[in-house]
Design goal:
heterodimer; A: alpha+beta; Gyrase A, domain 2; Cyclophilin; 2 domains; 5 helices; B: alpha+beta; 7-stranded mixed beta barrel; 6-stranded antiparallel β-sheet; 8 helices; 22 strands; globular
Amino acid sequence: MIKPRFLNLGDSALTLEFGNTIDQHLVSAVAALDARLIQEKEAGRLVGIIETVPTFRSLTVIFDPLVLSRTTLQDQLMMLLDEADSGLQQSTRHWRLPVCYGGEYGPDLESVATSRGLTPEKVVDLHVSQTYLVYMIGFLPGFPYMGDVDPALHMPRLTEPRIRVPVGSVAITGQQTAIYPWESPGGWQLLGRCPLTLFDAQRPEPALLAPGDRVEFQVISASEYKALAEEGQGGSMDVARFLLEEVNT
Amino acid sequence: MTPQLKVLFPGAVASIQDLGRIGYRRIGVPQSGVMHPDLVWIANALAGNHKDTAVIEFFLSGPTFRLEEGTLRLALAGDFSMELTRGKAKRTLQSWRSVTLEAGDTLQIGPVVSGTVGYVAISGGLNLTPVMGSCATYLRGGFGGVDGKRLSPNSTLEVAREIPAVLRDSGEPDCQLPQPPKFTTLGLTQATSDQDPPATIRVIPGPQDDYFTDAAWHDFQTGNYTVSKESDRMGSRLEGPILAHRPDKNPEIISDGIVPGAIQVPGNGAPIVLLADGPTVGGYPKIATVITIDVPKLAIMPPGSQIHFEVVTPEEAEALLRKHQGEMTDLIKTIEPLELTFEVNLQALYNTSLVSGVVDALDIP
């Protein structure tokens, strides 16, 4: 088990930093401790922990210092870290999500191709040939940080971020790829657009994707995109049909 | 008959908030919720509500309501006055009290005099459907409150229940907070000029305190910062000494967790204090985090306010939080029926400078 550094995030939160890179081993270590903490909380122990926030490389533990002292929490976390070396949370869901690449849906496809010395078709091939891991959800509700993108497609962020990235945009930067669940400002390079609703506050599970999920992309045409987008607006789309398998490991 | 509260005018920005959405940061949903929990505690206590009942939060100019039918008690916390119109009669009332409205009454609230926010609690609460366990409006996500939006003009808020008849018939009087809280404790300040001493905001270093140069740390602790106009429920931008990242460290980090109060420093070196609607993770180093009891103070400072940072330990912050909770509990206990002030209230008289001046003059040893 990787021993994390304990960092102070104010008087009511601790960040346990497992490393400083985007790496599947770190994500697994974070997920293992997170799962142990959730178990403890569900068993009625560790009263005073309010919530936990797993990221690529750290677990933030938010607590009520008037109920649980920082030193007690630190001691308990150390103990759990010693036990949490097995039972890693493996991906149980594998998605195949439809994406319409290029044109108005992917305004950066041409420039990414040019700067990497590839054809746009090759860029799309490389993007759909990979199965990605959802490293974490964050920043905005339901925003999935996924990797790893083929090294041939590694691109910096735009020097001038866009004020408005359309909802559903499928984007890349460095080793990461993501789908924007909301219209928002953004600096990643846009390759295409996915017509599914990634976040719906009214769904029992509002975020479509969860850390540990596997995701691959499937090319669809503009007319297929429009049909799916329309179906989604009706609010009746059954997203389970984009799930390839749900395996308990 | 359920009272219907009509919003004639919503004010600058008003939304439904409660103590926030807990447990969904892991899917990128921020806490949201009120900017100033202490003021909301006071408002809800005056209204006879539980501490986390949803309230109306407004910035600067306040809302105007008309009660369409029924009887309804509102309670108001923050530094502002309001005008109650009943028939042809108009009365000006101060905040820190409850007001019982009758059908047809109009209540024009604000503007806020110190700080930037005010709160209206509704006795019995509003009829709302919680989203992910909370009624807090998250504007960016478009959920919570009323359809995920700000209060809109000519909308109607449905009140959860009327004042119980037993209370009304026995003439349960309105309540007040007899001694409005010390404004400095709650951070209710007016925008300062250069001559005023800056307000102290206490911080705990980290999580990325080691990303900054010694000079940056010196400037951070000794310089003054001004709250910029570009501050909202997501964060407070500060203008002041630029904080340089260490040359051997990247000014970007692999994203990690953020809580309200975290001070992010992007590549341009200008700090941003993230607040209730801020993102759940971020890719810039966080030099320090504002302690829990000072976050609301900073969150409601008018643009142009001056602050300086003071470093404390987590143990000191915990002790300060415990002390503050005690003081707030004591303050809430002082809430009393309002009718007392209509009779001769000696204590209130002694508290006025006029009487104390007389007493001083007569104070012969």
